[in-house]
Amino acid sequence: MIWNRTGLYSSIYSNNNSFCTLSEDSQNITCFDLYSDFTRLPPNKSVILGKFSSISLGNNHSCGINAADSFIYCWGQKKYSPLSNENPSMENIPKKIFSDKIFKTVNVSSENSYAIDSDDHLWGWGDSSHGQLPNIHLSKNNESNHPEQSNLQLIEIAGKTILSVASGDGFFCALTNEASTNNNEEKSGHIYCAGNNSFGQTGQLNVGAKSTVLAQVNNKRYTELAAGNTHVCAINLDKKVECWGNNSFGQLSYNPIFTPYIATPTPILQNENPDFAKLNFKSLSLSNHSSCTITTDEIPYCFGDNTFGQLGGDPKDGSLEIKYRDGQNYYAHFKPKKLMNSRVISLAGNSRATCSVTKNKDLQCFGFIQKNTYSSVSVGKNYICGISSFNTHALCSSFENNLSDILANPWSASLVTPWVSSQAFTQVSVGIDHTCAVSNESPLNSYCWSNPDSSYVTHRAYPQLIASLTLPMKKIVVNNSHSCAIRKEDGALFCAGNNSNGQLGNGTFTSSLNASEFTQVSLNNVHFIDLALSENATCALSFEHEVYCFGSNAKGELGIGQPYLIKKNSPQKIENLNLLSIVGGKEHFCGIKKTVLAADNKVICWGDNSEEQIAYSSDKINKPVELKNTQNITQLVANGSTTCMLNNRQEAYCLGKNQNGIIDPLRISEKFSSLTRVQAEKTFKSLSLGEKQACGISTLDNTLSCWGKSR
């Protein structure tokens, strides 16, 4: 999921419920509440006041280092922290704590916090029941009561200074500073751990016990250190990654069936790519049950839990399926995989998502699979956009499954983790090089954007308002070379783009900039409710359900029974035809006939029939004809030389050209002159037909099901 650019970010942090970012310019904290309101995409946003150089998020409280005075400020709940919760409304207001010391870094876990002061000494506070505050001596009585230590406790490690600290569920590890006096040598040291060792996460062999005394994990030196809930990873002097602790989801890069845990630092396994062994790493980001590491070239690789797509791609792809006692299937992708091609400067994750700040200072996220549900969808040549099932934001994706190295935008997001618009759109339409959408905003509510790889369109990678549409629009439709929109207020029709055949309907043959320079169609006192575009013609449906067409009639697209070679640059009414809806293919149109009884609402088509998409013997038909066996049809879609529809049982049928196997994957070269059931095992709420793929919204869960060829 790629969020639209809303600011320039410098770093990102996470806990189980939120992602927080530091902006590059103001150092303010912006937090996204991921799961409290599933109807909002992107999620609810809030701002933590104050300027911070770094922050750390815990599940109960969070802390940061103030950029101005280097004191620790915390916010959230009192549990395991020195905060006071006498006034719950103050929970999101940072409060200065321990004002007698200044600090360089702070690390917050679920029950503990650790900080390194300006003299590189380590301090801790919070729960001490597992020995994670090793200088506190516990009795059997207070062990069971999970004692709190809200006051700072100095944690000494043989008189050594500390480079960094990382903490998880009831344990922590610290990296000492033991580099030589050579100024050119990178800072490094040994790792010491204490606390809960139920999975070997403290690096000690007494797995299942707790380590109440700080102990060195081995004799090797490391430069970086990070911890998840129950596992740890570090980068050694050779710039290679070693991990230890819990491996139940493959977060140590080993098959969890054969290796459920590892008690000592162990090099991660290589993936199938022979070049992976040559990679060097410089930083780490560990979440609940996943691990990510960033190369010296700033490319992220991840392994572990991918149940929600938090490591990118289809959760099942390349993963080991694990069924736990809760009955849910989990997917462990234990072989390191590239998260994205783009370079990143900061990375953070939790049990359901991973987010990064790219080199371009954008925010890019993976996961949230359970949110990818739709109310409507529009399929183009290589791209697809839909409106979320909550009728809010547009979810846009690429069938090509690659992420741009330069810019994260709607045209390069993968289908599994789509880009999400910041605008709340109600309808969207995708062409080859353009996408347009309408919102509930006023007075300007029409947006369009274009594929940045196209050489002949204005590069608008993100949605931009269309200034020529000065009042709110009800619907907008995009085709390969022209676009049209219906105004909400009075049903007036506007078009833009190629007009060589009069398909803009403004009485001229003068073209304009597609999806930008809209002009009104020349027809007074007619209010339109629906419209459809072919390659070189336009048809629209009036409030009285009458049909008007204009543009090319080369294949009979105007439906008025006149010679095929004519062009009309103003609307022509098709006599004696009333439709409920209308759709357009490359050179043909179809609609659902308006009758007294719904069961009699058969499909009417006209235009090109060279691939039998209208199911008649003639190659072209310049008057509307009725398709056989099409009673009880509720929705129509068309693209190219193919026509598809849904019946009242929500079954999908198609006829015409079998482009890319959309009708039958085993009979690609054939054409179908009669209705053929497609995706027979599925039912759909709605369909959309593209050049390479068809997609339907499942009646079961509102998710997308697509078929055909992706390339």
TrEMBL record:
GO terms for molecular function: guanyl-nucleotide exchange factor activity. Gene3D superfamilies: Regulator of chromosome condensation 1/beta-lactamase-inhibitor protein II. It comes from the Bacteria. InterPro entries: Ran_GTPase-activating (IPR051553), RCC1/BLIP-II (IPR009091), Reg_chr_condens (IPR000408). Signal peptide: none annotated. GO terms for cellular component: cytoplasm. This is Uncharacterized protein. It comes from Fluviispira multicolorata.
